[in-house]
Amino acid sequence: MASLNYALREINFKIVYYGPGLGGKTTNLEYIYQSISPSYKGKMISLMTDKERTLFFDFLPLELGEIKGFTTRVHLYTVPGQEYYEASRKLILKGADGVVFIVDSQKDRLNENINSYKELLLRLKEYNLEFDTLPCVVQYNKRDLSDIHSVFHLEEMVNLHKKPSFEAIAIKGVGVFATIKVICKSVIEKFELN
Length: 194
Ligand SMILES: Nc1nc2c(ncn2[C@@H]2O[C@H](COP(=O)(O)OP(=O)(O)OP(=O)(O)O)[C@@H](O)[C@H]2O)c(=O)[nH]1
Ligand SMILES: [Mg+2]
Hints:
By secondary structure, this protein is α/β, with parallel strands linked by helices. The chain has a single domain, classed as P-loop containing nucleotide triphosphate hydrolases (Rossmann fold). It is built from five helices and ten strands. The strands form two sheets. Strands 1, 2, 3, 6, 7, 8, 9 and 10 form an eight-stranded mixed sheet that branches. The chain has a two-stranded antiparallel ribbon with strand order 4-5. The longest helix is centred in the C-terminal third of the chain and has 18 residues. The N and C termini lie close together (12 Å). The relative contact order is 0.19. The site of magnesium ion has 4 residues, from helix 1.
C-alpha cells in the first residue's frame, strides 16, 4: 500500500520485481541504478548476494518528483528467484503497489516462468491483492539470445492476464526504462483514482 506522510509531505510506493531465478531482475535494477543521476536515487542495497544470486532482496529507492505538493518516491525491490526462497518472496511482496514480472525468454525456462507466475497469483491472493486491478508490467527479457520463444507464444503461455508487456535485453538496458516508466505511471494513476 502506498504510504502517505502528511508531516513530511511524502508519498512512498513499493514496486516488486518478481520472476524465475536468473531471469534478470537484479540486472534491471542495476541498469536503473547506473543510469539515474545521484540526486534522484538513494543507495542501492543488495542484501546477501552469493555468486550473483539474490539471497534475500535488492532495494533501490528513486525519487519521481512531486504530486500535488508531495515528494513522490518509489521503492524498487527484487525477490530471490531460486525455488527454495519462497518464504522471502512472500515477505517481500507484502504491501506491493505494483509488480514487474520478468520473464526469461529462453525456451528451456518456460516452465519456470509459468510456475513463478502461478506462485505470484497465489501469494497475491493470500494478501488479498486483486491481480486484475494491481498495476503490473510483464517484461520479456534476454531477447538477444538465440534459443528463445516468440513474444506471441510467451504472451499466450505466461501473460495470462494480458498485462502491458515489453521486450528487453536488460544487460544492455534495452526495455528497462520502458518497463519502469509504465509501472510507475500505472501505480500513480491507481493511487490518484482512490
Ligand atoms: N544474454 C542476456 N543475459 C542476461 C540478460 N539479463 C540478465 N542476464 C544475465 O542473466 C544472469 C542472471 O541475471 P540476474 O539479474 O542476476 O537474475 P535474477 O532474476 O536477479 O536472479 P535471482 O536473483 O537468482 O532471482 C546474469 O548472468 C545476467 O548477466 C539479457 O537480457 N541477456
Ligand atoms: Mg537477483
